[in-house]
Fold this protein.
Amino acid sequence: MRNQTTTTGRVRSPFGIFRIALTLLATVILIALAGIACGDAEEGPDTSNEPAATADADEHVDDADEHVDDADEHVDGADDQADDADAHTDDADAHVDDADAHTDGDDDHADDSDSQTDDADAHTDGDDHDADSHDDPEANAYLEAAAKEALFLVDMSLFSYAPSVLEVEAGEVIEIAIQNSEAVLHDFTIDKIDADVHISYLGGTGQHVHEEAAKDADVHFALTEPASGIVHLKIHEPGEYVFYCSVPGHQELGMEGTLTVTEG
């Protein structure tokens, strides 16, 4: 058998060819092992402990949920306390409203009491004024010297007054000169009138048998005989007042007149 030669003229032996094959095979094996090693490296680190780490993470999540639940319970408790505080506040407001209502009621009662007291004082003052006028003929003596806004002359005769109508303004000081033209008892009487009154006699007397019956009148001037006298008045309240003769039967015969007091 003839040995093969290369172009260079060198002869390849079978043993040399076998060595080359072994070298190539070894190279392929090394390359394959290197590829396997690279594949393991690309697969990443060992995850054999992942289940334990996941369990720990789950435990942390559960703990966080418990904390959230506790926080919710605290929030609910705070809301309950806030509701209780609101309820107490509403109760306190209701008590305050009740107290205000009672206070208003007490104020109303106090006002009513004050009004009644004022009325009582007014009546007392009026009674004191009447008592002073009746008990003390000089109680309103200032009227005699005061300037007079109106002067009247009234004649009592034939069971009548002339004139029978007098008109003045409230607050004016007036003078009524009254004369009896007959030898018959006549008088000038006004039962109730809010006025300062002063009476003076210029002659004759006012004493008569029925005087006791007329003593409660605010104005009572009587003459038992032909004579005269003066009645001074300062009337405080507007109104229409009747003056009449209180001798029994005389008023029924027409002996009366009207004193009209207008707003001053």
Summary: Helices lie at 14-42, 50-135, 142-145. Confidence is low (pLDDT under 50) at residues 1-11, 122-132. The two ends are 175 Å apart (CA to CA). The chain has two domains: 66-135, 142-262.
